[in-house]
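Input sequence (321 aa), recorded before submission:
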Amino acid sequence: MPLFHLNSLCDGLEGGDWAGFLRDWDRTLRAANRPETTRYNYLLAVAQLARYLRSDESEYQGSGAALDPTAVKKRHIEAFQSWMIETRSASTALNKHKGLQQFFKWLVGEGEMDTSPMDRVPQPKTEKKLIPVMRDEDTKKLLDFVGAKKDFSAIRDEALIRLYYNTGARLSEIGNLLLTDVDMNTQSIHLHGKGAKDRRVRFGTKTARAMSRYLRARAKKRYADEIPQLWMAERGKIALTPNGIKLMLKRRGHRAGVGHVHAHRWRHNFAHEWHKAGGNTGDLMLLLGWSSEEMPRHYGASAAAERAQELQTQLGIGENV
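Predicted structure, token format:
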């Protein structure tokens, strides 16, 4: 199923040029093979800017910019960005900023504008939060809770948790796996990463055992042959989506007494354990599908803080007298 329908994003944008430009830009994004999640986030940012300029909350309601994106100026973007920070968060405003940068860059490239109104709008500063790694004891507690039952959802969820834990892959990469992406002979999966960057990663013996159990259980399900996606919902002819997995992890964690369970914590854990074992940063980037060295620094920040604290305790500085 598609992540979104363009018509729903264009709702309320009639009577101006915004909807037409959105449709044209989406055509360009699809031609460039941009991932569906990227397209959605970009288009949503533009639609939200258009709706804001038309809303009662904006002083620019009824202005030319409210009807035509080529009339948007720096002041319109700054007002929208301030509103996003006040009503959502700085991190959300930053995401919108990035999407709008791409949209107005495209308009300039199309010859619709001479310069982008984003050129002199600074990105909103966001607070750098240290995301705690998912400790082994928390993962064990979660797996013990899930493994207490032997029904289809428990077998499936154990395989999911072990794959995230074992590979450090993104929520969507594991969630969007096809049945044909799994190779049990080599104990590996073919991941479809961001920016159309594919890679193959291996998984260990315990994960392979959980995957084998799931594949056997899946094969017995009705409609199994008609669903190309690896992960099936418990009932019906439905695949389990990445968002469904996200909700499942949160629900399982809450019931197991483990807080803040989400896939990215295992990604941080993978980077932590890799560096702790003396692993090479370049190899880590290949395994986790990163092209920028900023990502290992970001994902390693909380882990580095923990390693520093461990070393501080071992050294006993200030405990000698």
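Checked by second reader. The longest strand covers residues 188-192.
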